[in-house]
Amino acid sequence: MSLTALHSTAVIYRRILSQFPQDISLAFAYGSGVFKQQGTSQGQMEKNMLDFVLTVDDPVTWHTMNLLQNRKHYSILKLLGPRMISSIQNEHGAAVYYNTLVPVDGRIIKYGVISTESLIDDLMHWKTLYVAGRLHKPVKMLVQSENGKLRAALVSNLKSAVMASFLMLPESFTEEDLFLQIAGLSYAGDFRMVIGEDKSKVANIVKDNIQHFRILYSNILRDCPQVVYKSQQGQLEVDKSPEGQFVQLMALPRTLQQKITKLVDPPGKNRDVEEILLQVAQDPDCGAVVQQGISSIVKTSSITQSVKGIFTAGMWKTVSYSSKKLMKMWKGWRRKPSVSHMS
Description:
Layout: H1 3-17, E1 26-30, H2 42-47, E2 50-56, H3 59-69, H4 82-91, E3 96-104, E4 107-115, H5 116-125, H6 131-134, E5 140-144, H7 148-168, E6 172-174, H8 175-184, H9 201-207, H10 210-223, E7 227-230, E8 235-238, H11 242-250, H12 254-264, H13 273-281, H14 286-313, H15 315-335
Parallel strand pairs: 2-4
Antiparallel strand pairs: 1-2, 1-5, 3-4, 6-8, 7-8
Helix pairs in contact: 3-4, 5-7, 7-14, 8-9, 11-13, 12-13, 12-14, 14-15
């Protein structure tokens, strides 16, 4: 992408953000309208919907202002008022409220609103892995306040993604293997990957954006005592001993540790988490157990958030949005060779 194109996209994002109430603690753009994905031309990118997440300290005040400025963005739920909208945002699905298929400045956008508190909780503990999972992948940061707790949570989320991926990878692997594993975390167990999302989505995200992934993760990999990172060759070797895996398991976010515990410990046994994780660390299927734990978090939040989306978007927009997703999935299938050489 040329420098002028980069500059003009930065201006587009700024102009779009300027249309919203300004008390935002974190804002980022993501998805195929922002980062080039394999099989997408520059022209297609410019037609793709732009996706944003806006993090706000006080959702009630923010929605009050946004309803005054941008009432048309909301579905019929606007009639319930800002307090009700905020409680739908916070108490259902993944604590995000989306307005979708919104025309702004000649582009079609979708934006999700999440409270700073809910975001920090998801980044630290992977309660839903919804926005935390988005932030495992490169995003275009547009606003970032000086909130120290939020900054620390953003780094913690990346470290957790690395640890979970180590547990699911073999002893030695490439940078690309690691980034594919990380990018796939938030799609594990997502029912939309069965119906509605392009199956080769994870590979498309990683292939053209290796450099962006490096920028996100290279410092963490260099400082991590669990891994030998040969950055010149793009090769990594991780400690797969039971002791090494135990350290990695102990570093995972709390919700994932609880899910793993539930999977391994029969009810009524009530052993402590540390004891169970020590057992998992010695299991040859350790990686599969971690994968199952992640899937169970993602499955719940992807279903509840999608059901919520039907109401927050309204029926017509939901049908329109879903049909576009199904078209993308169909095109993904068409691109695939008829005989797969992969086992």
